[in-house]
Amino acid sequence: MKLFIDTANVDEIRKAHELGVIAGVTTNPSLIAKEGKDFFATVKEIVSIVGNLPISAEVISLKADEMVEQGKKLADLGESIVVKIPMTEDGLKATNQFAKLGIKTNVTLIFSSPQALLAARAGATYVSPFVGRLDDINQVGMKLIEEISTIFKVHNIASEIITASVRTTPHVIEAALLGADIATVPYKVIQQMAKHPLTDAGIERFLADWQGANLSSF
Ligand code: E4P
After folding, report:
1. Which of 16, 86, 94, 189 is the most buried (most CB within 10 A)?
2. What family is reported (predicted)?
């Protein structure tokens, strides 16, 4: 399973990219708004950091023809741009038009397997089921990943599943075990994934033993 970073913060994107662990970036209007900077300038900066890795940038309109216009403007920023589109009937129509134009899409705000199937059939490159927001309303987000994963496998559907709205390290591992292609994760989850108390304790012990032995240094 690949990892994308879910942020519009360029410092976080740069740090995660330097670790060599990310295969793409996802943003959304809330994440862009949080940074308080120009949308297109931000996306351009992200392109300059991650080069040809896929970068999802979302349209704002809810009308198919306007989504297509907005998406084309975003796609002009680079071949790595993936137009992110909300899961609505207009969104499906726009997704289908982008598929015909050869422009990659990420259909977002997916909360059911029928929605995922429709998005895939409309030609979505990626579908983004949101697990955390389902957990928030006392539904089991991972059940959705399991369903979509099974349906896509059984029917040989090429759209990739991005597990989105990831809040914890267990979310990432469950998504991987269930066969999601990608998990898009906030930077803080990448940091949590890197940590283990026994790693810290082990380092402390190794260094203490080394210093106690008074050996010649590097
Ligand atoms: C994914 O593409 C979305 O940007 C994101 O995962 C939403 O996460 P949230 O539910 O934590 O806002």
Report:
1. 94
2. Belongs to the transaldolase family. Type 3B subfamily.
Q: Is the pLDDT reported for residue 215 higher than 90?
A: no
- The single-letter DSSP state of residue 111 is -
Ligand 1 contact via 165 beta carbon (within 6 Å): yes
Pairing of strands 25-26, 2-6: parallel
Residue whose CA is at the smallest distance from ligand 1 atom 7? 165
Residue 109 Cα to chain centre, angstroms: 12
Task: Using alpha carbons, list the distances in angstroms from residue 204 to 4, 194, 197, 209, 213.
Answer: 31, 17, 11, 9, 14
From 5, 25, 28, mutation site for ligand 1 pocket: most ligand atoms within 8 A of C-beta: 28
The two three-digit tokens of residue 93, written as one number: 């129509």
| pTM of the model as a whole | 0.96
Asked if ipTM goes beyond 0.95, one says yes
Q: Encode pLDDT of 3-60 as tens digits.
A: 999 999 999 999 999 999 999 999 999 999 999 999 999 999 999 999 999 999 999 9
